[in-house]
Amino acid sequence: MDERALRAALPNNVTLLIGDVAQTVPEFLKQVSSSAPIGYVVFDLDYYSSTQVALAVLKDPDPSKYLPLTITFFDDMHHPRHNQWCGEFLAIEDFNSSNPTRKIGQDAFLADRRIYRRSEWIKQMFFLHVLDSPLRRTSDLSTRQVLENPYLTRMTDVKAAKKADA
């Protein structure tokens, strides 16, 4: 990799951290704030051990550093030798079993919402569910919104009209 050329090609608002993920992840997490939370993470690490270390990026104690539903992509899952007992699959399973308020899971319906339903990348997309996110725990009814549905309104009007006619 030509690091100098890569740095020159990046926009000014991008920071490139190169090195062992065991050192770069903690450094990166120090820079993340709730005003610009993590919303997407790509894991391209090939092995269980490196993926397990890199998953620390999803473990910061401050849940406001993440969107409540953070998209993740795992690059090295599609090889025939990879399965739930090794590699990234096993790292995800271990992450889920050791983190009660953060869970990584696939969206069962993602393929149904895509034009190219057979694309391999769909099976590599996961969500981090940040169950301890303050945005998931809102109990203030004044902040909740009810979205109007014009079709339901029309059906209510139709039913009311039928009752009036009867």
Notes on the structure:
This protein is 32% helix and 15% strand. The protein is α+β, with helices and mostly antiparallel strands and 166 residues long. It has one domain. Strands 1-2-4-3 form a 4-stranded mixed beta sheet. β1, α3 and β2 form a beta-alpha-beta unit.
In N-to-C order, the SSE pattern is HHEHEHEEH
The total tally of domains equals 1
Coarse shape: extended
| CA distance, first residue to last residue | 78 Å
The largest sheet has its strands arranged as 1-2-4-3
Q: What is the structural class?
A: alpha+beta
Main sheet attributes: strand count, strand direction, barrel closure: 4 strands, mixed
The tally of helices reads 5
Mean pLDDT: 85
Low-confidence stretches: none
The total count of strands amounts to 4
Report the radius of gyration as a whole number of Å.
22 Å
* Beta-strand percentage range: 15-25%
What proportion of the residues is helical, as a percent range? 25-40%
Itemize the secondary structure elements and their pairings.
Elements: H1 3-9, H2 21-31, E1 38-43, H3 48-54, E2 66-74, H4 87-98, E3 102-105, E4 125-130, H5 150-165
Parallel strand pairs: 1-2
Antiparallel strand pairs: 2-4, 3-4
Question: Tags for this entry?
Answer:
15% strand, four-stranded mixed sheet, 166 residues, extended
Summarize the structure.
With 166 residues, the protein is of the alpha+beta class. Helix content is 32%, strand content 15%. It is built from 5 helices and 4 strands.
